[in-house]
């Protein structure tokens, strides 16, 4: 069994240099500081690792995929800056968020600047021009979808109750498409044929859904200390996660349903309230249901990799999918 | 003498179809409505007109440049959406701005979505892959610079006094680079050699500076009715325009200087205050100085076009530069 955390951490170190290199300081200072803060801060950096692994797994040169890896991480960070501002979040990875530190306008501009730089970096890829165009198509489509997904999430949090299918579509747009664009782009740069690119693209799409679903589970039943954040916030926001949607459909007892609904969307719900809501969802089988569903997505993701020859990179991609389900953070 | 307004209006109609075509409706509805509002509303559409004219002026096929024209207009509109939000502006072209109508989060996301779509459209250009890469490079750099310029403007309005050179650099970044990227991109698509692309690029860069400088003049001495907005707001914001910087350097009388400084940056300055400040700048020769400077930029812009053969498109580009100085709106 591969040590995914260790490999991710090795990859992460490998990105430090290029992430700085493609963002040399310019004027004005405050914008530059705001722009580099999230990329330099690290985090799991799963998305860029996926780009390099995909390039390697199809038999390509990983170094050639490095600029795309950096670009995908910039795009991820640009969306975090904008999302943190619109969600009013004050902390990210232990740091003060950009809009709190530099003001809302600078948060918007730092996001825009990172976004622009991501595509400037893609334009510099040392691959045939046709590959640049193909990468551009899949990545631009992903960013368009990210905006749609975030808007659906905003609408959802504003109290619109959504079906399970709609929720999964939101996850797909908010999380999967960027994983998928990175993996597909890595495979393109690695010289894969269309069938292989499509398989890798679908692998990452399914993995992204599994990852986010399990993230929702952790956000309810995880360890707040390990997670570095309080649990139950999705319940407070009244978010239609798989668990919530399942519970609303499967709770038969009227009193329990009334109790559940009284906590759902209650922004100032106490820890005791959250414990109750969690117990109700566990009893209704909603947590198990979400874990089973995420596991199914993981299996389908791994199955897509059958088109690839065996390699360390393929093994890492499989392990990464399994990691999505076994982690505690 | 060409009727620039008439030609711009003909171009503008030509863009209506493609602007809609590249933004077919998807989900969610509120994001889509927010995304199409500015592009569909029109405005002068000078930037996309410049793209087609540049493609034609170098002997190329204008139709092939249409997707870039649309992309440049989307980028312009994305920056307007974000700028309006950060500036807190409530009206644009007589319409309610996006953040007021749909909320701040949707304004951020609609800008991001338009930005992404712009590059998706560039990826679809019917030109050799190498040209797509070259266009991508110049346009991504422009968007990076736009963010820098807007941040400088934000810093400037926050009371940092800047030199004239710094102010012109801000204008160059905020206004010129997108004109220039559009013109250069149009020339690339039209098949121009590097020397011609560079000349067209510089033409538009100089024209952009002249345009914004004259805009500042109109914002002080223009007709509020024709402009559709009140005058003197740059003075209220304490913005270091060419006129203000010139006046601060050239007013010799201490009492007049004190009076001028008392209005500068006074957000609630009355119309009478503004009239006084304007008179002081006129007496100091600051308004004439700004007009002369803008005229000089216009002349230098037109001179750059010497590399082009005579054509209607070249004539339009010259007329557009002259229009920058002769307009009353």
Q: Oligomer, anyone? A: homodimer
Q: What is the CATH C-level name of chain A?
A: Mainly Alpha
* Morphology of chain A: globular
Q: How many DSSP H or I helices of chain A?
A: 16
What's the β-strand tally of chain A?
2
Spatial gap, N to C terminus of chain A: 19 Å
* Content-based structural category of chain A: mainly alpha
How many domains comprise the coordinates of chain A?
1
Under CATH, the homologous superfamily of chain A reads: Farnesyl Diphosphate Synthase
Query: Largest beta sheet of chain A: what is the strand line-up?
Result: 1-2
Low-confidence regions of chain A: none
What sequence of helices (H) and strands (E) makes up the elements of chain A? HHHHEEHHHHHHHHHHHH
Amount of beta strand of chain A: under 5%
Query: What's the Cα radius of gyration of chain A?
Result: 20 Å
CATH architecture of chain A: Orthogonal Bundle
3D architecture notes:
The structure is a homodimer of 329-residue chains. With 329 residues, chain A is an all-alpha fold. Chain A has one domain: Farnesyl Diphosphate Synthase (Orthogonal Bundle). In chain A, 77% of the residues lie in helices and 1% in strands. A two-stranded antiparallel ribbon of chain A has the order 1-2. In chain A, β1 and β2 form a beta hairpin. In chain A, α8 packs across α9. At the A-B interface, α4, α6 and α7 of A face α4, α6 and α7 of B.
